[in-house]
Structure formats: C-alpha cells, structure tokens
Amino acid sequence: MPSFDIVSEINLQEVDNAVNQAKKEILTRYDFKGSKSDLVLDKEGIHLTSDNEEKMKSVVDVLQSKAIKRGVSLKSFDTGKVELAAGNTVRCLVKLIKGIETEKAKELVKMIKGLNLKVQAAIEGEKLRVSGKNRDDLQQVIQFLKSKDFPLPLQFNNFRD
Fold first, then answer.
1. 46 — pLDDT class (breaks 50, 70, 90)
2. If DSSP states are collapsed to H, E and C, what string results for 25-93?
C-alpha cells in the first residue's frame, strides 16, 4: 500500500551558516559600529542581544534575510519578545520549530479527511503518515497541502509504492 510521511524538519547546518553570516554582516555594517549586538546558536534556539529595540529589529532582519538566502523557512523561527537585559542591552530568543505538534497534526488530519479521498492519516510522534490504495490520491493530498499556507514548513518524504 503506497504511503508517505509529512514532516517539519529544519536543516541545522544551514541555520548555523545563516547565523555565522549574520554575525559577519553585523560586524562589518556601519550602523552597528560600536554596538553590543551578537547572535549565539545553541540547543534552545538563537539568542540575540543588542543595544536597543531598534537595533534588535535590524539584527532580526539580518538573521531572517540570511536564513532565506540559505533556504531556511521563516516559519521555522519563533521570535520571542524583546526583553531588557543587563548592561543597558536587550535580548530576544528565536526558537527553532522542529517536528509537528499534536495539535497541528490533528489539524492536518482534519484537512486531509476533508478532501474525501480514500486515504488514511496517522499521527506517529512528530510526523504524520498518509497511506492509501491509489498513488494518485496521495499525490492529490501533497498538492492540496502545498497549496495551503500552513504555519509550519512541511516536507513530504519517504514516499513508498
């Protein structure tokens, strides 16, 4: 029986490259001269620090532009609130969204069932497995989900015949 998986993955190497490129640009840009702006990638996400909220917006903008150039979807970034930090600086945490949460997976299952095709969708951890007897039905599901603007970046892999 043909099947495929719907996943939401992020390429951490490309995120790391985007962070490093953003760091280099911040060091060389004139409007950041003498600024305490910095980006640090760790397990929690990307920690941003800057002098004030205006520069923080610029740091986020630089990071987002570098991520887009590296092929990383901005839907994978969850930018938190800008908070005051020590030393007259502000900080912000950009969380990296990996996997499909159960609530979002249930929404996807409802959308797939709403198509009235002969396919079954099953939630398996942080991914969704869609299977059916007809390969064309599975391809219709993929086309439908690609046409929708879902709040997560979706990838379709592990297509088996």
1. very high
2. HHHHCHHHCCCCCEEEECCCEEEEEECCHHHHHHHHHHHHHHHHHCCCCHHHEEECCCEEECCCEEEEE
